[in-house]
Amino acid sequence: MKEIVLSGIRSTGHLHLGNYFGALRNFITMQAEHRCYFFIADLHSLTTHPKPDDFHGNVHRVLTEYLAAGLDPEMATIFVQSDIPEVAELYVLLNMIAYKGELERTASFKDKVRKQEDNVNAGLLTYPVLMAADILIHRPAKVPVGKDQEQHLEITRTLARRFNRLYDTDVFPEPTAFNFGSELVKIPGLDGAGKMGKSEGNGIFLADDEKTIHKKVMRAVTDSGPTAPNSEMPDPIKNIFTLLQVVSAPDVVAHFRAAYNNCTIRYGDLKKQLAEDICKVTLPIRARIQEIGADAGYLRKVTQRGAAQARESAQATLKEVRKAVGIREF
Ligand code: TYM
């Protein structure tokens, strides 16, 4: 059965391996089978990056990288969030049923309050509500995302349920966060702690060249090596193995695991292998980034077509939503 599938990525920074393995790769696999919507969350980027001179360039870059990674506008609807004004209207309506307390408890909000204490704007607080509007406006069954978005999806489900109950409707299905491996993935960074991110300076980008990838991987945090057979791995080493597991063949992973367990591992060899296998995934994408990014006519066609398709779906939902809320014409 064809399911509706939706996901998005913020237009801040280059796409990295976390974005690719957390969201994009699932999506690329699903686009041929399902009714897929994939978008660039450019309005969300204003909560942290309010610079008009950078705004369009950021969207251009993320769109180019999406397409280069394999999203196909012939199969999926690919669009830019700010091209769909219906999302802003649904955001207003959902804000009326979202409570300050529940939004303040969101991990991403608390994190941003710490990171940008001089700009704790209302958009940061209601970030999950805008995300819920992005999702619910197309009424998807599945939302392929990484582990870091789990809490936002839970808020989306809560708002869908609450809206249906308060307005006595069944307009919104409850979408589920989705990954093919069933567990949502968290791709770690190269600095030994935390997830790979755009801003943390710990990431490998799809646009990185071979030399940069090798340099970054060789610099990844490790330790002085295992001192006893079968010892527990410390986090930085676990992280390197997590990355190896997503990019390398199972026998390669098994080989290095065995070497760790019998204390013969050489981190230099491990990193060299990891860098080579990352390059196998990303370098073909990098080559397409350069080609697609230069084709302004193609990018215009993709976004115009995507916006028209997404607006059609959004308008159908909004019509039902307005009716449920009690908005009527004279
Ligand atoms: P963003 O732009 O931070 O990340 C986009 C996607 O990449 C995944 N991801 C990761 N997965 C695993 N490991 C990592 N280290 C890692 N880093 C990022 C994210 O889980 C996400 O799937 N709020 C969203 C954008 C958004 C959205 C939406 C997503 C706005 N509206 C509606 C889905 C549906 C965000 O900031 O993702």
Explain this structure:
- This protein has 330 residues and is mainly α.
- It has 2 domains: 4-185 and 296-325, HUPs (Rossmann fold), CATH 3.40.50; 210-290, Tyrosyl-Transfer RNA Synthetase.
- The chain has 14 helices and 5 strands.
- The protein has helices at 17-30, 42-45, 52-69, 85-95, 100-104, 107-115, 122-125, 127-136, 150-166, 210-218, 235-247, 250-261, 267-293, 296-325, and strands at 4-10, 35-41, 77-80, 142-144, 176-178.
- The strands form 2 sheets. A 3-stranded parallel β-sheet has the order 1-2-3. A two-stranded parallel ribbon has the order 4-5.
- The longest helix has 30 residues, at 296-325.
- The mean pLDDT is 96.
- Tryptophanyl-5'AMP binds next to strand 1, helix 1 and helix 8.
